[in-house]
Please model this.
Amino acid sequence: MKNTIILTAFLFLSAKSMANIDGAFLDAPYKDAVQIKIEKLDNKRFSKNDVLSVIDNMTPVRAQVSRGTCSIFSATAMLEGMLRIKFAKDETLDLSEEFLEFYAVGGRTSDGSSSGANFRVIYKRGLPSETTLPYIGVSWVDMPMLALAVKRCGHLSGDPKTACLLVHRDPALKRMNDRQILDQTLPTFDPELVAAKVEGREFRSEYLSKRSRTPNSRITTLANLRRVLNAGRPLTMGISFYYGAWNHRKADELGIGRSDANWKAGIVGYPEVGSVDRVKSKEAAAGHSILIVGYDENKVVETEVLMEDGTKKKFSYKGVYYFKNSWGITGFGKSINIKDEIKPGYGMITMKYAHEMGSFYQMSHSFFK
Model:
């Protein structure tokens, strides 16, 4: 009985309270990746930004725990940061990733979304608070007999049930109006979701633009990317994931090798051509989405990489992007030093990796009122 109570309590911890839990789970590979155009820039204007001032405007690092919801977290972090910048919201602002995950992913049988899709959901529905619809840090797919899982998904079978267990609600609710959702004779009765929908609509009315179409979010050039960061605004980046470059725990399982020191320091290198990482990571293809908060053209990071011929080579990379992650604060990036300040849960990724394999997105001023 005690174990059941403990498990239930764990499942309903909020994303904020789970910031010390290092899940390091990933998205499915991104299918809409488009790399930016790299042009020569004025070194004086575009060598670095005031990254610490951007970080000061961000909300605390959250933890996605054991769900592949990184793009959901980066989009929510982006929105929270922009609300702080544009509307002077307090740093305690905490919006519902659970709501965004349901409307962005509901109906599928596996996790994974994208910045563009997430922004469209936010623009259409707004976002309620974390308190109104708290984040649940696990999928129910492997624990379908939990009481709440049975209550919400027990009337389903096959793929519809899997889809329900994945996002903790019957995806049919997405097509239902508030009156239908509040029908107590139906297995989809869900007053909590209705409360979240109402709050989301109020949020949208108060903060978001009234344009009929979601403003374009994709960043296509390096100059535009740097202008946004220089203006003090964050960006999301979705990127193909290489376990060795990230020093992820799965790198050891795949025989790639990893640096625990770089993991704790939040350093992300590059999957070199000819490396084991470049080949083996594709066996467990994944994507990851993060919130870019700054850059420094002159920052140098060093890595040691296992090559396919069995040798280990050292590489040095000049230029990084700083980012806010969604893996908590006690594992990845626990000791990262950014401009002589420790910022647990943040990281730095080489520009080489970001430029070659990342796609960047913004919430422009036209997204908001």
About this structure: The beta strands are 218-219, 235-240, 267-268, 287-306, 312-324, 337-338, 341-342, 346-350, 358-361. Residues 320 and 350 are 4 Å apart (CA to CA). The two ends are 50 Å apart (CA to CA). Residues 1-18 have pLDDT under 50 and may be disordered.
